[in-house]
Amino acid sequence: MSNKKLVVNSGDVYFIPLFLYEESSAKSFSRYKFGGVGQEFCFFRIIDDHLGSGILIEIFNCVGGIEADMNEIVSSPRLFKPIYISGEGIFKKRWRKVGETKNYNKETDSNYSSIQFLIGIPGEFRLWCNDMESDIDNLQDIDDVEEHIIWTSMQVEKRVLKALGRL
Questions:
Q1: Of 5, 1, 51, 58, which is closest to residue 26 (Cα–Cα)?
Q2: From CA 16, how far away is CA 107, in angstroms rounded?
Q3: Nearest 10 degrees: CA dihedral of 117, 1, 79, 77?
Q4: What is the pTM of this model?
Q5: Residue 1's pLDDT band (boundaries 50, 70, 90)?
Q6: What b-and-e string marks burial along 37-64, b requiring 16 or more CB atoms within 10 Å of the CB?
Q7: Per-residue model confidence as pLDDT tens digits over 39-96
């Protein structure tokens, strides 16, 4: 990225094009006109920007055109548990803001305190939850806990397509 600083806000909603998954994450789409016939999108909301640790997002199980209804988007269930992304998809204009959740509250709107990640290295993982780290005891079931990985735009798009059964 250049010297420009990426600024994102909690509650902002962006689209994810479902047709660019083979394009490099490094490619700029600043001049690309989205919204053509047959173009489909999935949508995500920014939960929190953890700066160097990535941008925490939730991706909704909502597919539609670029003009999808904001209430329909944010009232849809999650496609999968929240993940961290790098900001390059937004910075390179591959993913664009389509709206925002008014008066967004990460706890009431996204159930922030229940989001968990495994941090560290396998065999020495710690549990991250609600901005705190804790040791994992032998009785905790962590099979369903997402590993803290910062996903690129291309990786996210492929994961979305797989979750939708399209890849």
A1: 1
A2: 24
A3: 90
A4: 0.93
A5: very low
A6: eeebbbbbbbbbbeeeebbbbbbbebbe
A7: 999 999 999 999 888 999 999 999 999 999 999 999 999 999 999 999 999 999 999 9
Burial class (CB in 10 A: 0-12, 13-18, 19+), 68: buried
Q: Which two tokens stand for residue 136?
A: 């994992």
Position 106 in a domain:
yes
Domain count for the chain: 1
- Containing 89, the helix (H) or strand (E) segment is helix 88-91
Domain span at 104: 12-111+148-163
User: Any idea which residue has 């590993």 for tokens?
Assistant: 147
Q: Per DSSP, what are the bridge partners of residue 84?
A: 56, 150
